[in-house]
């Protein structure tokens, strides 16, 4: 139903009426709260109707069927069988209607990579992430910022620190410069703090967790390769 008031409040030409069935994030605020009914969050709106901006609603004709949005595959996740969660599907939908020349600015506070700066993500970066394609350094950096914020909320940011993967990965320049960038980050580490260092070989992401005070390096490879990547090894050894 695309018209008519909701609880006595006009719907508005740019909005549609939605029914909340399953919340993804219960404490998320409604974009258009129902002030008369004291309904402000998605959880409070379960089983009732609310107004929602039309451009943020995936209409039924944009999918093969309604069940496609609700079903989550129980099969192993592969490129062929991957069923996109609703939240990721909506993110992809927003990315596709973004202006291709527009990039979203994300502030990278000083505590994330030890230098205060802004980074930018465009629609192509977001769509690659949604489709489980090889993801960019920007996506990894923004995710690390998210982890840093979670650590700060839990007062655990003293346990871990992060290194900007754009400064040390395969395409970042000469190995001496990349190793120097890592060295500067290790010098700023607190006692017993692990420095998380993502590294892109060119088509694959690895992770090193480094404790500079004990000279221990923990190496993670999601492909479970026995041999350590020589490019990352040289940077850490230098």
Description:
The protein has 238 residues and is α+β, with helices and mostly antiparallel strands. Among the domains are: 1-57, no CATH class; 137-237, 2-Layer Sandwich (TATA-Binding Protein), CATH 3.30.310. It is 28% helix and 22% strand. The longest helix is centred in the middle third of the chain and has 17 residues, at 137-153.
Give short descriptive properties of this protein:
238 residues; alpha+beta; TATA-Binding Protein; four-stranded mixed beta sheet; two-stranded antiparallel ribbon; 22% strand
Assess the beta-strand content as a share of residues: 15-25%
Percent of residues in helices? 25-40%
State the name of the first-level CATH class of one domain: Alpha Beta
Q: Can you give the mean pLDDT? A: 82
| Total strand segments | 10
User: Judging by the overall fold, what is the CATH architecture of one domain?
Assistant: 2-Layer Sandwich
Order of helices and strands: EEEEHHEHEHHEHEEEH
Gap between N and C termini, in Å? 64 Å
Envelope shape: elongated
Q: Which spans of ≥5 residues are poorly predicted at pLDDT below 50?
A: 64-81
Largest sheet: 4 strands, mixed
Write out the strand line-up for the largest beta sheet, numbering strands in chain order.
7-8-9-10
Q: Please count the helical segments.
A: 7
- Category by helix and strand content: alpha+beta
């Amino acid at each position: 139903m695309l018209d008519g008031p909701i609880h006595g409040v006009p719907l508005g030409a740019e909005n549609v009426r939605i029914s909340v069935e399953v919340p993804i994030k219960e404490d998320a605020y409604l974009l258009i709260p129902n002030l008369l009914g004291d309904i402000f969050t998605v959880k409070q709106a379960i089983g009732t109707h609310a107004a929602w901006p039309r451009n943020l609603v995936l209409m039924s004709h944009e999918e093969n069927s309604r069940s496609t949005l609700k079903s989550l595959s129980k099969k192993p996740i592969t490129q062929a069988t991957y069923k996109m969660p609703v939240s990721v599907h909506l993110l992809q939908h927003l990315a596709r209607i973004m202006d291709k020349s527009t990039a979203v600015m994300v502030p990278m506070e000083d505590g994330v990579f030890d230098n205060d700066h802004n980074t930018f993500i465009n629609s192509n970066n977001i769509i690659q992430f949604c489709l489980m394609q090889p993801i960019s350094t920007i996506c990894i950096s923004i995710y690390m910022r998210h982890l840093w914020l979670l650590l700060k909320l839990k007062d655990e940011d003293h346990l871990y620190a992060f290194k900007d993967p754009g400064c040390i990965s395969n395409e970042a320049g000469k190995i001496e410069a990349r190793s120097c960038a890592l060295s500067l980050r290790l010098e700023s580490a607190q006692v017993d703090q692990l420095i998380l260092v993502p590294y892109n070989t060119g088509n694959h992401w690895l992770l090193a967790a480094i404790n500079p005070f004990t000279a221990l390096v923990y190496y993670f490879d999601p492909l479970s390769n026995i041999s350590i990547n020589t490019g990352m090894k040289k940077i850490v050894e230098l």
